[in-house]
Predict the structure of Archaeal preflagellin peptidase FlaK.
Amino acid sequence: MIASGPDLLRLVVVPVFAWAAYRDVRTRRLPNRLWPPLIALGLLALAWESWTRLPLAGVNDRLFLVQVAISLFFVAPLGYLFWRIGGFGGADAKALISLAVVYPTYPAYWLPVAWLPTLPVVMSNVGVFSLTILTNTVLVGLAYPIALALGNLLSGRISPVMFLARPVPVESVITRHGRLFETRSGYTRGGLDLDALRMYLRWRGLSFEELVDRPEELREPESVGETYDPTDGAVSARSTDGPAVTDGGRSAGAEAGDDWAAQRFREEVGPAYGTTPESLREGIETLIERDRVWVSPGLPFVVPMFVGLVVAVVYGDLLFAAMRLLGLV
């Protein structure tokens, strides 16, 4: 492969994002220490490329500065903005910011058989590669619910939420990530988050099997005695091996009418992933009544971001390719 030094350096992000996508699917957790080295790598590549362009006096050099400015001062802040309004998780925002720093301009890689990306830059946006990655990411993300609905349709699973969820055995929810998309009375997009369910069970020191097998006893708020560290709801976390958070006896914190001690959970733990006492109670009641429930697989945004990155490096901008196919450019 033939490429400039900065562009070869930037390829390091591809395997890193492959690992991040895999880990995000498996655990829905990405370590914060992942992103600073990528940002440092991007700044190093940017400084290297800028040095090779000195004194930055030509037309192409001025275009380079415009591209860098758009990537750093428009695309990168978009990640922060989407996080602030709740459209992104923290890791998603950091991933987009990292890509904006690493890939402000289009790379060029020469293989024995072709140039990469194969789509000419003139058929793309203004040459801001991070913007190409972002548009690719959005298009890949839009394809996911279509694929999910098609899978449900071919399996004969028809419902109003078939674009967003799929039915799974109820006993499997404790090892899944996602959100319940049904209640006892129908379907909902605001059902119980499964990470919050794990937090609740760890807070009580219960297994999911106990919850399902002893609902009449465990529904009573007086059944909550010692409570434990709820963790962050990750599948692999454990809490009941450590010291109790409260140890005031079986009646500690009990409140009449507080089924499942849901209000007490909210007061002691907080709004775990947006969970309210009402949504917690409804989710538990739904789970103990059903054999199968509709659950959103919850595709992490870093996964389509990785796919969008690979497509951008190999092919180019999918949006402009589609516009060209339709004769719009």
Notes: Residues 248-252 have pLDDT under 50 and may be disordered. The first strand starts at residue 109 and ends at 110. The chain has two domains: 5-141+302-325, 166-296. The beta strands are 109-110, 115-116, 166-169, 179-180, 182-183, 186-187, 292-296.
